[in-house]
Amino acid sequence: MAIDNVTVKKIVIPDRFKPVLGASGFYFMMMAVFIYFAPDVFLQVGMFTAVFLSLPLFIIMGLSLVFVTVSGEIDLSFPSTLALTGLIFSLTLTATDYNFWLAFLASVTTGVACGLFVGFLVTKLGFSSLITTLGVNFMFAGITQVLNKGQLRQFPKFDDSPIRAAVVGSWGPIPAQLIWGLGIALILGIIFNRHRFGIHVHIAGDNPEAGRAMGVNISRVKVLCFVLVGVCCSITSTISILMNSTYYSTMGEGYLLPVLAAVFVGGTPVTGGKGTIAGLVIGATTVVFINTGVVAVGLDGYYTGLGFGLVIILSLLGHRALSGRLSR
Amino acid sequence: MDKSPLIELIGVEKTFGRVQALSNINLKLYEGEIVSLVGDNGAGKTTLTKIISGTESADDGAKIILRGQEQKNWNAAKARKLGIETVHQNRALSEQQSIYANVFMGRELVNRFGFVKRKEQIKETEALMRKIGYTSKVWTPHSPVLKLSGGERQGVAISRAILFDSSLVMLDEPTTAMALSEQAEVMEFILNLKAQGRSVIFISHNPWDAHAVADRFVILDRGRLVFDGPKGNTTADEFISMLRDVAKKGSV
Ligand SMILES: Nc1ncnc2c1ncn2[C@@H]1O[C@H](COP(=O)(O)OP(=O)(O)O)[C@@H](O)[C@H]1O
Ligand SMILES: [Mg+2]
């Protein structure tokens, strides 16, 4: 047969690269549109610096959400956990006369406790994580408000501290927190793809019954994912407090939709068992550019929502086209 | 016979809500024997293998004794560590993951920090795929299981059960969705396990297959153990009429 002798060289993209490819293609398309319409804004170094300031916060939160999503659950409680861990950080800071490490430890402990609480409700009581974390989000927000008593907490003493310089200082146009954010992404990326825990996270969201039959402790894996969200909340809130030298109890409010958007735009499907860390980083960049860009070009803030909506829906189309299924 | 059993079940019961899936099962399994576990749909065969493999826990009061040691808090991880491998009826595969991830699922090769030795896993999976004779050259250890045919998936589940040293292998209807030639290979494979000194629990819908490889028959009927005896000189026809009797009268 003649056909057998002709080797048709076709470029085959391995499936696991497709989400990243889709997310980056989408990112560049969006940037092209931005630059076309507002070159004076989007070609400035200042624009990128502005994006890099808040990008790491969204990356760190998004990373933990990728783990939870891939494990087959969802967590909507992180905005409140973020505010609560930030409050504990602030309270400890005041009580210990600026002992940063003790305050950070207290914040991380709080984050872990929040994660264990959610994990317990979801795995031991078998509650739906969507509804549970929705409820927990209200609950933690309430606790935070009660404990905070409506105060704005400022920490001017931080302004020239070395710890502030190390965490949120700037290295030229690059803010230090970007390096931290990317570093955490690298570490979590390696764990996600190469560590036994990461492998089990995939199995938990793909076929938990199979995992259990093969001796994987699926409940523990899921609980650890929720704990990771808690820890990432405390890291994010700490960075955010250092950035502004201020704590306010509504600090988590702007995160919910952009972080979830970053996860899905990045190419991690809601269905579990699959996801990408590199995609998340690109997805977060896309989302933060919209966040920052809409304001930078002088558009009304309302347009941010419109931008998110377009991006999410268009990116879903893109990912689906790449995975070869335009209809369900 | 004065051998001590490899595994002994005493008073195993299992209820799912109102369904009594197993009632008072007492069973001993010896080294190097093939037990054909048969019975109608819903007889409790799968439930019994799940209890032995630690996937389901038996109701209170049951005892599982492995090599003379009573096992407490029996679970799947422990069972595998102690040498019990299972080809589950539902295959227990994680379909979006690669073949090699499935082969090593739950028993990943890791370094002391818990990082997976990926290259080693891939290499062993390649060797395994060659050994079980994957005819399709399209698949590599990286291929996701969802692209495989039913028989090929079965192959992954079976090869996972032989990868690790084990003393008991349970196969729950392993030949479903297989071509005839593949089925013959599985029968060969089961005899091989025995030749290596391992014990086998084999569940099949096909009474001829069940008869062919068995050293001993265990028949379940609606959760009760109604027959347990050596094959001896029992012919396939006699075995099949035993099964008919059980279906009709609930006893042999
Ligand atoms: N997870 C479960 N929940 C409820 N009932 C179950 C469950 N698993 C098995 N059963 C019931 O237990 C009985 C035995 O099932 P099973 O062990 O699968 O039988 P077999 O493998 O012999 O066909 C059946 O009546 C079945 O419906
Ligand atoms: Mg069955």
UniProtKB/TrEMBL annotation, chain A:
Domain of life assignment: Bacteria
Coiled coil: none
Keywords, ordered alphabetically: Cell membrane, Membrane, Transmembrane, Transmembrane helix
GO molecular function per UniProt: transmembrane transporter activity
Transmembrane segments: 20-39, 45-69, 76-95, 101-122, 129-147, 174-192, 223-243, 255-272, 277-296, 302-322
Pfam family name, one: BPD_transp_2
Annotated GO CC locations: plasma membrane
Compartments reported by the entry: Cell membrane
Membrane topology: Multi-pass membrane protein
InterPro entries attached to this UniProt entry: ABC_transp_permease
Keyword Membrane attributed: yes
Name of protein: ABC transporter permease
Organism listed in the record: Actinobacteria bacterium BACL2 MAG-121001-bin67
Record lineage: Bacteria, Bacillati, Actinomycetota, Actinomycetes, Actinomycetes incertae sedis
UniProtKB/TrEMBL annotation, chain B:
Keyword Nucleotide-binding on entry: yes
Keywords: ATP-binding, Nucleotide-binding
Domain ABC transporter: start-end pairs: 7-247
GO molecular-function term, one example from the UniProt record: ATP binding
Protein name: ABC transporter ATP-binding protein
Source taxonomy: Bacteria, Bacillati, Actinomycetota, Actinomycetes, Actinomycetes incertae sedis
Keyword check for Protein transport: no
Domain of life, per lineage: Bacteria
